[in-house]
Design a protein that fits this description.
Layout (H helix, E strand, L loop, with lengths): L7 E2 L2 H4 L7 E7 L5 E7 L4 H10 L10 E7 L2 H15 L9
Antiparallel strand pairs: 1-4, 2-3, 2-4
Length: 98
């Protein structure tokens, strides 16, 4: 299975440290550690995508206070992992039939 980073506070400062050189898969979590949303971003888009979830009203994840990410070689691989996580963890803000 993919190795995720340690859980971090969902702040712009921490988002700025997300590497941009590979595609990523990320989890936005509640204070208690529940996975609220799992998503992916292509190479060079990870930081932008996380900021969108923080700042853009229609993209926000309510109660999302923490996040984790993992780098993967390709966006195709990220999609596969995302699908597996959604099926296993049932994050409340993801479409469950992806």
């Amino acid at each position: 299975m993919t190795k995720f980073s340690r859980t971090q506070k969902f702040t712009k400062a921490n988002i700025a440290n997300v590497p941009q050189d590979k595609a990523i898969i990320y989890k936005i979590k509640s204070r208690s550690g529940e996975n609220l949303y799992t998503g992916i971003a292509g190479r060079g888009r990870g930081q932008d995508r996380l900021v969108e979830h923080k700042d853009i009203k229609k993209e926000q994840i309510p109660d999302g206070t923490r996040f984790q990410y993992a780098q993967v070689k390709t966006k195709v691989r990220a999609h596969q992992i995302e699908k597996t996580i959604i099926k296993k963890e049932h994050p409340e803000h993801n479409e469950q039939h992806k």
